[in-house]
Structure formats: C-alpha cells, structure tokens
Amino acid sequence: xxxxxxxxxxxxxxxxxxxxxxxxxxxxxxxxxxxxxxxxxxxxxxxxxxxxxxxxxxxxxxxxxxxxxxxxxxxxxxxxxxxxxxxxxxxxxxxxxxxxxxxxxxxxxxxxxxxxxxxxxxxxxxxxxxxxxxxxxxxxxxxxxxxxxxxxxxxxxxxxxxxxxxxxxxxxxxxxxxxxxxxxxxxxxxxxxxxxxxxxxxxxxxxxxxxxxxxxxxxxxxxxxxxxxxxxxxxxxxxxxxxxxxxxxxxxxxxxxxxxxxxxxxxxxxxxxxxxxxxxxxxxxxxxxxxxxxxxxxxxxxxxxxxxxxxxxxx
Length: 315
Fold this sequence. Notes:
By secondary structure, this protein is an alpha/beta fold. It contains 13 helices and twelve strands.
C-alpha cells in the first residue's frame, strides 16, 4: 500500500508511517486514558498483520509495559515477521536519588528490552532523551554512547539512533557520526517548525529523520476543547486560538484536522517516516485513511498562516 524509502544508511527500507506504542503501554497521566492488556495485544496483532511494517517502542513506555505487550503479541504470532522493523530505546534508571544513565545502565536497559520482547538481537536501538544528562556525560568514557557502540560491535544491536527533544542537542549527536537515525518530536507540526535546521543537518549527514508526535499529543486531532494539552503541557491561549482557527479552516474544506496534521509531516521530503500512536485495532485503517485523503492546496496555504510565531516554537 505504501511505497517504502531508505532509512538513512541502515540498509532498511521503511514506510512513511511508523506505529508508536507509548500510549499502548498504558500511561493515563500523559494521555488521559488507560489501555488494558487485552486491548493492547489485540491492537498489536492487527499492527503486525497490517500494511505499516514499522513499529517503535521504548524501555520506559508504561514502565516497560509497552515492550511486554509487544512481546506477548509476538509470541502469539510466532515471532517478529521478517519484513517488519522494530525499534526500541534505552532509558535511564530514574528510580534512584540520582538519575543513572551510565553505560552500565544502558546495558541493563537493553537486556530488559530483549527479555520483554523475546528477541536476542535488536535491529535499531535509540538513545532516548539524552537531554536528561549533559552532552559531555553522554559522550564520556563509560557513558551511554560508548556502551551503545560496544553493544553494536558485540552484535546485540544492528543500528543506532538518537531520540530527543532539543534541536541543537540532536545536531551535536548527529555530528558524532555514530547515529544513523534521529527521532524528533513535537518540533515539526502544523504549529511548530523548529526542527527545520535539524532536518537540513540530517540530510547533509545522510542521517534519516523520523518525526514523532505530529498531533502534538492529541490537540491537532480533537481540538483544544477535548484535548487541551500541547506537547505534554497545558496549551497556551495562543495555541488554543491557533488550533481552533485550524479546525475552522479544515471544517470548511470537509477535511479532518488530523489528516492535515499527519500529512503536514508526510509531505515533508526530509522526513523518512512519521510516528503515529494507535491504541485500538480500528485506528489502523483510520490512520491509513488520514494519510491518503486528498487535501486541497488552498487549505495548506491557510494553515501555514496559522502556525505559531517563531518565538513560541519549542526549539
């Protein structure tokens, strides 16, 4: 259904959509709703049987519940399909008085993920939110970057990525020449364009970009009345006003706001794939419909005028 494209220098080809599994781990404090085990596994079975052959998770999603549920679904279907790319992320231990994101912790995180997923080799693993420590700590001897390089050399990891927020920080990690994929989130949406310099930087370096949170946490699907948070925080009055105006533009053209939000990322040639979370089996077909709906050119022109002013971008 979807033409695939190369994922940077990894040798993988992926579709323009990637299934995100943060909410499927059950994180009501962020998403405002819970997802039980049965619903999660039913959804994941549909994903592994569906047209989008790329899924992303993390050691930390739902305290490990996302990976556990993916592992349960994989056991039911007899293992990871050969044509399916699964990526996960290593995370620090934040239960201690001082956050531990050492090289030792990275090894522990990877072992936990392998156990939950039931896999003895992971094709793509990301360093997750390294802004929780300094760049110098991340790249120091014995730190997480060194550990990831060692795990790759040992054959436990196929390829390395980095996933985080601050744009300038991600550009520094790209410059290390270690990472083949970058995940950015909430910084290339209908509202915010701050990832632009990162997209250019990655293109020049031959690094693939995967764009997360194209819906800004839900406000660009449901609107500010039903989803009053943007990028994990309460939406400002300006954000609410801009999204309400975007809803009006889309309604007049009979286009779902969610379709415009998703396709804003999909139509960007510097982005290889876009992460979309789903928590119900029927959402898979709905996502495909949003991705393929025809949107008139004048709608894009009007929506562009409603993006946040540059001083309000997340950076």
